[in-house]
Specification:
Elements (H helix, E strand, L loop, with lengths): L1 E8 L4 H12 L4 E7 L4 E6 L5 H11 L2 E5 L1
Antiparallel strand pairs: 1-3, 1-4, 2-3
Helix pairs in contact: 1-2
C-alpha cells in the first residue's frame, strides 16, 4: 500500500476535516485518510493512490484548496 501527503488550506474545524475526509475517502483505491487540522496535512493511503488531479477535484468539491502534494 502506498501513501502520499498533501496540504489543504481553509480547514478550521472538525466539520472541515470530515468534509475533506469524506471526499478523498470516496476516491477509488483510497483505504485511509488521516488529517492533521493544525498543520493542514492530509495523509492518504491506498492502492492505487488517486492521481493528483482527482485529489485536487476532491478537495475542491469539499470546499477547500489543495496547496501542495507529493
Amino acid at each position: 500500500m502506498a501513501t502520499t501527503v498533501i496540504t489543504v488550506s481553509g480547514m478550521t474545524c472538525s466539520h472541515c476535516v470530515r468534509a475533506v475526509e469524506s471526499e478523498i475517502g470516496s476516491l477509488q483505491g483510497v483505504s485511509a485518510v488521516d488529517i492533521d487540522l493544525e498543520s493542514g496535512t492530509v495523509t492518504i493511503a491506498g492502492d492505487p493512490l488517486p492521481d493528483p488531479e482527482a485529489l485536487r477535484r476532491a478537495v475542491d468539491d469539499a470546499g477547500y484548496q489543495l496547496i501542495s502534494g507529493n
